[in-house]
Structure formats: structure tokens, C-alpha cells
Specification:
Blueprint (H helix, E strand, L loop, with lengths): L4 H4 L28 H12 L15 H4 L13 H34 L3 H15 L14 H16 L17 E2 L3 E13 L52 E2 L4 E2 L4 E4 L4 H13 L7 E12 L4 E10 L7 E9 L7 H31 L7 H34 L10 H23 L1 H4 L4 H12 L1 H26 L9 H12 L5 H7 L3 H38 L7 H15 L12 H6 L1
Antiparallel strand pairs: 1-2, 2-5, 2-6, 3-4, 6-7, 7-8
Helix pairs in contact: 4-8, 4-10, 6-7, 8-9, 9-10, 12-16, 13-14, 13-16, 15-16
């Protein structure tokens, strides 16, 4: 006679509880130790299999194995105590880290926004208007097209903008040895003018033209730079001055220029400056080999504690003509003067302490997890944030030390040019590092909100469609770069937006966003211009971009459908916040403690 099902069942340890909403785990014989979570999941999957209960059992008829197992839920809709405790503890740890990180983020934002102000923009604007938009009857800096225009500018608007020796009613100012631009910005030292030249015969002339051309000056590159001195003149403007080791190079429109060259400084007097410029013009200081001229000067506004470093650049390419550009940097080199500055200094110290703490935490994680640590994208983001923070701290310390060492030296002689451009370069680099740092810091906030259902669906959508997006990106950029090369070759010599391959790429992105100039494209080529424009808009805008949106939309629909049928064991964040707030208010005696209405049976099970 077959033994009954009840007689075949072994003794079950009731400490093992199932997972999921549909059934408990398979019973384990004997007083076995508590299985791992992975084992419990496997047991739960076996308990949900219909073969365990037999084909004749319905929904209400309990399975014999389940009859001896504790119920998976303590009450309707409530997860198991152990699952709730684990999820709640994990969520509490995450919220604790989030609170600490928010404090760090607030400190970083104070530092970032404490470095800039609207006054910097206003100072840059008025300085730009002074030289780009001079008084009526004079041409500004942007109107320079030839070497003759350059001399006209430096003898007129440049000297008028640098030397403010009279008040608006033509009364002479008391400080005659110093110029105050706009009556508020002290001109530090004197202005400096520097040119970079190339040697003659630095390019090849076709044999047919040897009888017509004797001289040939190539485009600027380091090997072709002219470093010879004029033996008949001893002034500095006729002698080559080599670059210092720490001076940064300048990346212009036509090339990358070194920091050496032929230079001179303007005297303190406006009349003497006019005489010197007239002499240089008469003796042909600018030659056919001149490729770029730099005009540098610095000012200090005591009202705002801001240094303004101005660089006017005129490039004379091998094609002839001239191209101008102006660079104005308003920086705060003297950083610790007011009480707010010392408050920012305390925030900098707190920032350094945070970075040291984060470094220790990440080092502990690397030692504990080893290779597993580098498999997480959030770990790489943490490392990137730490690296950028360390660079920002290094730049800040270096800039502060250099300013304290060089400030007195630069201002010791009022008749020389104080080169604040070097200090400004490092200060701007520090500001850029802080900007990159705060960008990664805000991105990291997404790590702490992944318990939110919407954010979890978003991250799941991006991770699930990553392979499809990579495949689409390959196809997209093949078509995109094909059109970019087509536009560069067809329109590059006539349309500015297609004059370089890099500009072609940005121009096509602007076309995708709806910003385009069809008239110039059509004028450059009346046949290929419209064909290029129509086919690009059709294939890239209407076809490829809609394919991209379809990939993300379909994946998001799949993820959303999966989350609707997937049981969730995570405690909602709002419930934890509500519970934490109630606990704090109860401890502060601002709220009465809630009565425990939980059944005694449930307490015994917990």
C-alpha cells in the first residue's frame, strides 16, 4: 500500500520563511541552518512550481508542503519582517549617505558661486565696449583689416582708452602718473605690444614664378619663426625676446603662437607713447613676415577687488588681411580680504576635509571589493569626482602661493609691464576645474535617488537599450560624417559655417535643431546646395532621429510593463521619511506616540 503524503513528509524547521507573494519555500529536512538569500530564492522558486502541488489541487486547496511552512505574509499586502528589515536598513544607510553628500554639495556650490559674480561680466563688457565701440568718427578694434588700419587704431582709440588723464569737464586729474580707465580701474604698470614673425624664404615657389617673386613668407609654425636681431638698432622692439619657460602659448584663429617675439612697452605719458608709435610706424616695425601682434595690459578695480587682464590680438595670415580677437578676464586674485572671503576660506577647508574622507572611504571599498569595485559605473563616477577635486585643490593652492609671491614683484616698478596673464591662466584653470567638479557632483545625486520608482525605471531603460543605442549611433555617425565631408568639400571655400570640418559638424547639429542658413548654402552651389539640405533633413532628421526616439520609447514601454507585474519588496521612501519624522517629533515631545495596534500574533512572529 502506498504511504500517504503526510507520512512521507520529513520534519521541517519553521525558521525558514519563503519569499514572494505566491508561496513559501520547499521544506528542508532536519534542523538545517538558515539558508543564504540565494538559497531562499531558489527554494521560493521551487515552491511556486505547480508540480509540487499536483494537478488536482486548486487555488484554495493548500499544498501539503506549504501547509507545514509558515505563511509568506504576516498580513495582507505586507512583506515579511526580514525582507522589510533588510530593505529598510539599506534605505536608511542610503539616506544617511545622501544627507552627508547634500552637505558636501552645498559646500561645493558655495565655493563655485563665490568665485564669480555679475560684476565680472559688467567689467568685461565695459572694457570690450571701450575698444570695440569707440567714439564717433573712429574705427574700433574689430574694424582692422590691414596693417594700415592697425596703426590707425593704436595711435587713436588704443591710446584714448589707455590714458584717462582728464575728467569729463577737461580738468586735469590729480594722479597724473597713473591712468584710471573709466575713472575706476587703475592701469597697472604700462601696456605691452608684442609681435611674432616668420623668416623669409620659408615656403617653396614654383619655378615658373621665380622671375616674378623674390620673397616668400609661410604660415606661422615654430620652425619658421624669425628670431634674428636687427644689428643696426639696440632697442628691445628690434631684438628678439625669448619666451619664459612658464609662459603659456596662445591658440589663435590661424595657428598656435609662442610667447616670445619682438616687444616694447608704452611709456606712462600719452604724448611719449604717440611719439614712440609714430617712430615704429615710420621704421616699418611691422613687416610682411608679421603673423600676429598682441597688445596686453592689466587693470585693478579696488571697488570690486577685481583684476581685469585684457589681450587684444591681431593676426596677419599668409593670405593677407587681418583678423582680430579680444580676450578679457576678470579674476579675483586677492581672495581673502572681506568677511565673506574668509567664510569662503572656511568652506574650502571643509571641502578638503570632505575629499579626504571620501578618499578613505573609496580606498576601503577598493580593498574590500577589489575587482568588483571597478565593475560599477557609480564607482568610476566617484573616482572621477575625487580626481577632479584633487586637481582643483592643487590649482587653488598653486595659484594662491604664486599670487602671494609675485604680486609685490609685479607691482614694484610702475614703468614695466606686469604679466598677470600667467596668474590669470591658473586662476581660470582652477575655475574650470570647479565647474567640471560641480557637474559630476550633481550627476552623482542620481546614485542616491535610485530607490525612486521613476528613477529606477529610467536607469533600467537606459541600461536595457544601451546595445541598441550603440548600434544606432554607429549608423547615425556614418551618415552624419558623410554629409559633413560632403558639405566641407562643396561649400568650404565659400560659406563660413563650412570653412573647416569641425565647423561642418557643428553646423549640421544646428540644422538638426532648426538653426540653418539655406540662402548661403544655395548661393554657394545652386544644384548641390538644395540636394544636400533636403536629403540631410530627410534622412537625419525625419528618419534617424525618429528611429532613436522609437528605440527609447519601446524600451521604456517594456520596462514599465515589467515593473507593473513585478512584485516590489522595497519600502517606499516616503514611508521611511514619515516614520523618521514621526520618531523625531515624538522624541521632541511635539507629537504623541502612536498606539501599537499590531496584533499579538504578528509581534510573536517578528
Amino acid at each position: 500500500m502506498e504511504p500517504t503524503a503526510a507520512a512521507q513528509l520529513p520534519v521541517v524547521d519553521h525558521r525558514v520563511t519563503g519569499r514572494g507573494a505566491s508561496g513559501g519555500p520547499a521544506p528542508l529536512p532536519g534542523p538545517a541552518p538558515l539558508p543564504s538569500p540565494r538559497g531562499r530564492r531558489g527554494a521560493a522558486q521551487q515552491s511556486r512550481a505547480p508540480a509540487r502541488c499536483g494537478p488536482s489541487q486548486g487555488r484554495r486547496a493548500p499544498c501539503p508542503d506549504r501547509a507545514l511552512s509558515p505563511p509568506p505574509f504576516t498580513r495582507a499586502g505586507a512583506p515579511k519582517p526580514r525582507e522589510t528589515s533588510t530593505s529598510e536598513q539599506e534605505l536608511k544607510d542610503m539616506l544617511r549617505e545622501l544627507v552627508i553628500y547634500v552637505i558636501f554639495l552645498i559646500d561645493l556650490c558655495i565655493l563655485a558661486f563665490g568665485m564669480v559674480s555679475i560684476d565680472m561680466y559688467h567689467l568685461n563688457t565695459v572694457m570690450s565696449h571701450l575698444f570695440m565701440e569707440p567714439t564717433e568718427g573712429e574705427d574700433g578694434f574689430g574694424s582692422i583689416r590691414t596693417k594700415a588700419d592697425f596703426w590707425k587704431f593704436v595711435e587713436g582709440p588704443l591710446l584714448d582708452g589707455l590714458y584717462w588723464d582728464k575728467w569729463y569737464n577737461n580738468t586735469t586729474l590729480t594722479l597724473q602718473n597713473y591712468s584710471h580707465i573709466y575713472y575706476e580701474n587703475l592701469l597697472l604698470g604700462v601696456a605691452q605690444v608684442r609681435q611674432v614673425k616668420v623668416r623669409n624664404n620659408t615656403c617653396s615657389i614654383y619655378p615658373y614664378f621665380h622671375s616674378f617673386l623674390d620673397d616668400c613668407y609661410s604660415e606661422y609654425h615654430y620652425q619658421a619663426e624669425d628670431r634674428s636681431d636687427d644689428a643696426l638698432r639696440n632697442e628691445s622692439e628690434w631684438k628678439y625676446t625669448p619666451a619664459t619657460s612658464l609662459s603659456p602659448w596662445y591658440l589663435g584663429t590661424m595657428g598656435l603662437y609662442g610667447s616670445g617675439g619682438y616687444l616694447f612697452t608704452l611709456p606712462k605719458s600719452k604724448q611719449e607713447s604717440m611719439e614712440k608709435l609714430a617712430s615704429l610706424k615710420q621704421n616699418n616695425w611691422l613687416t610682411r613676415g608679421t603673423r600676429v601682434v598682441f597688445i596686453d595690459f592689466s587693470t585693478y578695480n579696488a571697488n570690486l577687488n577685481l583684476f581685469c587682464i585684457v589681450k587684444l590680438v591681431v593676426e596677419f595670415p599668409a593670405t593677407g588681411g587681418a583678423f582680430t580677437s579680444i580676450h578679457i578676464y576678470s579674476v579675483k586674485l586677492l581672495r581673502y580680504i572681506t568677511r565673506y572671503d574668509y567664510f569662503l576660506a572656511s568652506c574650502e577647508i571643509i571641502f578638503c576635509l570632505f575629499i579626504i574622507t571620501f578618499i578613505i572611504q573609496e580606498a576601503i571599498k577598493i580593498v574590500k571589493l577589489k575587482r568588483e569595485y571597478f565593475r560599477s559605473g557609480w564607482s568610476w563616477l566617484d573616482l572621477m569626482l575625487l580626481m577632479v577635486s584633487i586637481l582643483a585643490i592643487t590649482f587653488n593652492i598653486y595659484s594662491t602661493v604664486e599670487v602671494s609671491l609675485l604680486m609685490e614683484e609685479l607691482l614694484s616698478d610702475a614703468n614695466v609691464y606686469p604679466d598677470f596673464y600667467f596668474l590669470t591662466f591658473w586662476q581660470v584653470l582652477y575655475n574650470n576645474m570647479i565647474a567640471v567638479n560641480i557637474f559630476f557632483a550633481w550627476i552623482k545625486v542620481l546614485k542616491y535617488v535610485r530607490f525612486n520608482k521613476t528613477m529606477e525605471q529610467l536607469s533600467s531603460t537606459l541600461s536595457r537599450c544601451a546595445k541598441d543605442i550603440i548600434g544606432f549611433a554607429i549608423m547615425f555617425f556614418i551618415v552624419f560624417f558623410a554629409y559633413a565631408q560632403f558639405g566641407y568639400l562643396v561649400f568650404g571655400s565659400q560659406v563660413e559655417e563650412f570653412s573647416t570640418f569641425q565647423k561642418c559638424i557643428f553646423t549640421q547639429f544646428r540644422i538638426v535643431l532648426g538653426d540653418f542658413d539655406f540662402e548661403h548654402t544655395e548661393a554657394a552651389n545652386r544644384i548641390l546646395g538644395p540636394i544636400y539640405f533636403i536629403t540631410f533633413v530627410f534622412f537625419v532628421f525625419f528618419v534617424l532621429l525618429n528611429m532613436f526616439l522609437a528605440i527609447i520609447n519601446d524600451t521604456y514601454s517594456e520596462v514599465k510593463a515589467d515593473y507593473e507585474v513585478m512584485p516590489s519588496h522595497k519600502l517606499p521612501i516616503r514611508d521611511l521619511f514619515r516614520h523618521s519624522c514621526d520618531t523625531v517629533l515624538t522624541k521632541l515631545k511635539m507629537k504623541k506616540p502612536e498606539e501599537d495596534t499590531q496584533p499579538a500574533a504578528e509581534k510573536s512572529e517578528r
